[in-house]
Amino acid sequence: MDEIDELLSIRAAELYYEENKTQDEIGQALNLTRWKVGRLLAQAKHRGFIRIEILHPRARRLPIERRLREERGLTDAIVVSSAGVSSAEELQARTAQAAADYLTALRPVPRTLGVSWGRTLFDISQHLRNGWATGVNVVQINGGVSLNRRAGTAAATAVAISQKGGGQATLLPSPAILERLETKHAIESDRVVAGVIELARSAEAYLFSAGAADHNSVHVESGYLAPGDVDLLVAKGAVGDVVGRYIDSDGNIVDPALDARTVGLTLDEIRSSPLAIAVVAGPAKHAVADAVVRSRLCTVLVTDESTALHLLDG
Amino acid sequence: MDEIDELLSIRAAELYYEENKTQDEIGQALNLTRWKVGRLLAQAKHRGFIRIEILHPRARRLPIERRLREERGLTDAIVVSSAGVSSAEELQARTAQAAADYLTALRPVPRTLGVSWGRTLFDISQHLRNGWATGVNVVQINGGVSLNRRAGTAAATAVAISQKGGGQATLLPSPAILERLETKHAIESDRVVAGVIELARSAEAYLFSAGAADHNSVHVESGYLAPGDVDLLVAKGAVGDVVGRYIDSDGNIVDPALDARTVGLTLDEIRSSPLAIAVVAGPAKHAVADAVVRSRLCTVLVTDESTALHLLDG
DNA sequence: CGTCACCTTGCTCATATGAGCAGGATCGCC
DNA sequence: GGCGATCCTGCTCATATGAGCAAGGTGACG
């Protein structure tokens, strides 16, 4: 295609897309046959001169979703558009909304849904509509009795999801991480706790997010880890955590001793589930998202466009 | 349009624009008739959810051009797209290219073209192709013997335009601004200078740019004005200059005394021309561009998208 | 509860567009 | 300059889309 044709294809595109002329009219205006105009427009599209964006908070990027499914072996992928996003909060909100939409549309409806907790999960619970399902019971899959004043968001999350879904919530009455291994064993042998974990193991689906390994982590905020602890984990290769368990870029546990003191389902238990929905968004979580997908921790990923593109780059 | 339809229109748009499905296929996928799908897509477009951009250095914004013609009374307007522009230089280059294109396509071909000088005009001269016209003579319309080492760009500009257009250049051998009024009168009464100005008055078309009233001005760079002089002009309301004459936002001469010492056509002489092409681009020139268009100094404007939108906002 | 105005829906029909093909131009190669 | 391969052009025909219309549904109001 020479320069003259390239220019013509731009003129044609202007008339077609901005002025809503027919290819025939454009042909008359530019002294071309309408077939030539059609070919010029096809060329312009093919060469990437035409960009079509859908500007809407609920817009998704289907081609990227397909690539994620095909190239990264996911059962399903939901990628929200970043077009026109102004703030990180907006991106988070869009992703949470998309996750809520996905849950709502999920068939068959899981009778029991295992959930983690955190900012993302809380947002999802808030975006779910009342009556999004009927009879969906929720069970926590990792410890989450918070040590600080924001105590209760973990519980509130599970309760909101279950109530809006017309079911019951079963909370895991345990801290996320215990200081001593013995305490962890003791708690796990508690009849109630053991029962909840057993129920969690039998859940038909899991819904969880991932945290970045930095000082903004909910584990730091909740007091389970000190900022210095996180630094140590990062030094050992941690990129983030899933259900409280810190992993490296290959999805392996970074610190087995710490992991042994963490209450909840193991990563392998989640990995073996036929339906594990991970919701991960934001630039800070690119690395964890990659680890989660690489190590097949999830079968379904809900994320934003730029995170998705990051996954596909690798 | 309720929320459910809005969402459907987004889903439909994704399938239509990103997945290239037919409206019929979309209908099957979403359980709608194809007519409903067509209406949803029309709604999505109408509501501004669909943005189509032409990404190309030569792309223009025809709807904005039309608005400029209709709302600001221009004979013609050329607006280059800002989509995908990374640097100010790129914007300047695009605009210069568009101006060169406009000149090349201009019919009837002007026998004599009056030009000003400056960075923009130089860029235009460089973007013109050899043989862009045959027999176009060029005459300078304002003084421009530069006082510094970059002397010669003014002359080079006029010569390049005329040579590539198969004609002769007539230079105005005078400084842009003189220090004393008497000197200005003396120069103007010089037979050669008077002849050139007479020729300039008879030009069939004018091509000029406008400068912002700031320290980057070519007048400062060339030594005709000191930075402090510009500050004074700004204090008097100057927004920029056209052919060396500083104007306020209404297009009026800001400093009559200074203006009297400026050699070249007057603004009214340019204003009375049936074809006066102004080329003005860049955020710094929004104010001058507005003054130029408001005071009808030009009949044709070549500019960039954001400047054009600025003009239409007022 | 009836009536009317308005909006939505699913259609028919005209138009716009894309696929595929045959003839003709263009180019490299000898 | 001859020859074949390739690309380009303008066509026919099938398909996709938008305009306009009549029927049905909805809601406001008496």
UniProtKB/TrEMBL annotation, chains A, B:
All copies of domain Sugar-binding, residue ranges: 62-312
Gene3D superfamilies: 3.40.50.1360, Winged helix-like DNA-binding domain superfamily/Winged helix DNA-binding domain
Family to which the UniProt record says this protein belongs: Belongs to the SorC transcriptional regulatory family.
InterPro entries: NagB/RpiA_transferase-like (IPR037171), SorC_transcr_regulators (IPR051054), Sugar-bd_dom_put (IPR007324), WH-like_DNA-bd_sf (IPR036388)
SUPFAM superfamilies per the UniProt record, alphabetical: NagB/RpiA/CoA transferase-like
Key word Transcription present: yes
Name of the featured protein: Sugar-binding transcriptional regulator
Keyword line: DNA-binding, Transcription, Transcription regulation
Domain of life according to the entry: Bacteria
Organism: Agromyces lapidis
